[in-house]
Amino acid sequence: MLNQILLQVDGAGSGIMGQVFLFGSIILIMYFFMIRPQQKKQKETTKFISEIKKGDHVVTVGGIHGKVFSVEGDIVQIELDKGIKLKVEKSALSLDYSKKLNNAK
Q1: Could you give the percent of the chain with pLDDT greater than 70?
Q2: Is the dihedral of CA 24, 27, 32, 36 positive or negative?
Q3: Residue 31: CA atoms inside 13 Å, Cβ hemisphere, count?
């Protein structure tokens, strides 16, 4: 009888280790496929916003295309056409669409 009890305890311990391994592998997969790429994209966006200079072609999050006329702190003045300028926050500029615009030229 004691032998059967010890065998049951041993079997339950290996099941718990399997569950811990499974849970740990799920967390690891989520990190590499969800969290890490998001951190990389955020770093690229921050670099893009800090390196904006006069003459760059940009696209806003709202889809407005223009050329950077001036940069004053967190505000960027975009020239849409000759004489038409628009002030936007740097955070309103889209890295993805600006890359596509610059790669197409």
Answers
A1: 82
A2: negative
A3: 6
Q: What is the mean pLDDT of the chain?
A: 84
Chain position carrying tokens 């940009």: 58
pLDDT recorded at residue 19: 86
The per-residue pLDDT for range 55-74, each reduced to its tens digit, is 989 999 998 999 999 999 89
- Concatenating the DSSP letter of every residue in the chain gives -HHHHHHHHHHHHHHHHHHHHHHHHHHHHHIIIIIHHHHHHHHHHHHHHHT--TT-EEEBTT--EEEEEEEETTEEEEEEETTEEEEEEGGGB-HHHHHHHHHH-
Starting at the edge strand that comes first in sequence, how are the strands of the sheet with 84-89 ordered? 57-59, 65-72, 75-81, 84-89
Domain with residues 53-104, CATH architecture = Roll (2.30)
For residues 90 and 47, the answer to whether their CB atoms sit within 8 Å is no
